[in-house]
Design a protein that fits this description.
four-stranded antiparallel beta sheet, globular, mainly beta, 5% helix
Length: 347
Amino acid sequence: MTAANVTSVVFGGTGTNPTVTVKVQITNLPTFFARIWGTTSVTVGASATAEAYNPSLPAGAPFGTTTTPVAPMCVKPWLLPNIDPTQTNTSPPANPIFSPTGAISNPGLVGQGWPNTTGASPNTNGLFARCGDCSIVSPIPLPVPGQYYPVAMDNPAPAFPTPAQPLPACSAGFNSYQLAVAGCVQQTISCGVNSAINPSTINIDVSAYGTTRDADTVTASECLIHYNGAAGDSDSIDPTVTPNPPFEFLAGNQNPVTGAVGKDVLISDSLATIPVINDGSFVNPTNPVTVIGFLQVFLNPQSLVLPAPVANQIPVTIINMAGCTNATGQPILGNGPSPVAVRLISP
C-alpha cells in the first residue's frame, strides 16, 4: 500500500474533535482460488477514520452531559487556577478557562500566551509560582492569572512521584521538584472528579521550600527543553504558521535528534501539560484540589513569538486546551503527555 492508493482524504468532526477519514483502493490485487473462474485480480477498498479526541464539551451543551476523561502522563508539577492566564483581570467578571460544564470558555486562547501585550488588561508576566513557599502563608493565597501553585511531591500521597530514570544528564543534583519538571512523572493524572484512575488526592505543596522555587523552575525547565543560554538552542514554534493552529515546531540546535535541527518536528520536549484546578479568582484554594482540565503549553525561553523573558519567569504559548469537569468513568490511556487523545474510531 502506497500513497498512490489513497483515493480520498476527508476532514470532519467538530471544532474540539476534528476527524480525518482516509479511503484507499487497490485495483489489481492478485487472486488465488478465484482463478478457477477466470478472475486473476480484483479491486479492494477500505476506509478508516481517526479522531483527535478532546473531552471538552461544545459550548451550549446541557449541564450534566458527560464525556470520557483522558489521563495524560508526564504532567508538570504546576497547578493553574481556572482563570484566563493571558489577562490580569481577577475581579468579576474574570474570564475562566473552562466553564462549569467542562466547555472551553474561550477557544481563542489557543495560540496566545503570557507574557501578553494585547487585550484590556494584558498579563505582562510569564509563568512563575503564586507562592514559591506556600508554608509561610495561611491560608493559601488567592489565585492570580498565569501563576501556578506547586504540587506536593511524594507526600502525603504519591500523586506526583519523583521520576525514575532515564533522566537528562543536566538534571544531576536536582531536587525532587526539579526532577518532576525536567523528567517525566509516570503517574497518569486524569481529568474528572470520578475517574477510576486518578490519585485519591492532589495537593498544593504547603511544605517548607525556601526562596528558590522560581529559580529552580527556570533551571529545570531549561534542562527539559535543552536550552544552554543561546538563541536557537531549544525548539521553537514555526513562525510561518503561528498564531494559527495546527502548530508546527522547529527543532533547535540542541535537539537530541541531530538530524532534525532546523526542521519541522511532530513532538518537542518544549511541550508541557499543566493541570487546571477548580479554584477561581475569588476563593483561597484548599487541599485537596480537583483537576478540571489541562493546558498544553510550549515553553519559550527564547521565544520567536513572545517578549523577552523576565528573570525567573517562563514565557509560554497555549497549544491545546482540554476541559473535563463533566468527564466520568474509565479514562483514555496511552496517549502520552498530550491531553488530546488521537484514536481510531472506525472502521
